[in-house]
Design goal:
By secondary structure, the chain is an alpha+beta fold. The chain contains 5 helices and 8 strands; from the N terminus they run ββαβαααβββαββ. It has a 4-stranded antiparallel sheet with strand order 4-5-8-7, with helices on one face. A hairpin with a 3-residue loop joins β4 and β5. α1 packs antiparallel against α2 and α2 runs parallel beside α5.
């Protein structure tokens, strides 16, 4: 069970390009009728058959991202909605790689042939740079012997929400697919252990250093 908490706060944004990618990814997972149902329930009817333009203007609000993900949970229940958000997150990475990969250099051959641990470390730094440079989301990184930590200090996925469980499943999917691509087909356990919607101070995603396979 999750709710939207109405507060008077500064509005933050993703670029239109990223909002468009999120909607295309949800459509990839659910079909056109599915994404239209989500947009209708989220109060975003203006985006039905009218996705944001493919540019870097920061105009896709955190409120819109949060409303989309809450609508998924309202339609399919928390478990079903979050599972769909993970699948959409994986699609977001695949679509986003086409637009952002060349800008960040993550498709360069020199990057792809690095040793696994170095590739993961540099990959996380590059992904964090993407969000910190092109969006109002704030990401920082951590690491210990067993895990990497993806820490979101300003997060659109839980913006204005209160929930009994973490609601950052879209980011879980993005990280899973990003790691799969980075490592040439290896799967890693990614778990959100802290979420602002659950009264934490930040979103914390724990990524095991050892692949599952």
């Amino acid at each position: 069970m999750s709710t939207i908490v109405q507060e008077t706060v500064t509005t933050f944004y993703y670029p239109n390009k990223m909002g468009r990618i999120i909607l295309i990814a949800i459509e990839e997972v659910m079909g056109r009728n599915g994404v239209n149902a989500v947009l209708n329930l989220a109060g975003l009817k203006h985006l039905i058959n009218n996705y944001p333009p493919n540019n870097f203007d920061r105009a896709f609000s955190f409120e819109e991202v949060s409303a989309l993900l809450k609508a998924l949970e309202d339609l399919y229940g928390p478990r079903g909605g979050r599972a769909l958000a993970v699948r959409a997150g994986r699609a977001v990475f695949k679509f986003g790689l086409k637009d952002f990969g060349p800008i960040l250099g993550i498709a360069d051959l020199a990057f792809r042939i690095m040793p696994l641990n170095m590739k993961m470390k540099v990959g996380f730094e590059v992904f964090a740079e993407l969000f910190n440079k092109f969006t109002d989301q704030i990401v920082r990184l951590g690491e210990d012997e067993k895990a990497y930590y993806w820490i979101i200090e300003r997060c659109p996925m839980c913006w204005g929400r209160k929930s009994e469980g973490p609601v950052g499943s879209l980011a879980t999917g993005i990280l899973q697919e990003g790691l799969y691509w980075l490592t040439g087909g290896k799967n890693f356990h990614v778990e959100e252990t802290e979420c602002v919607a659950c009264s934490a101070h930040q979103g914390l995603f724990v990524i095991d250093k050892r692949p599952l396979d």
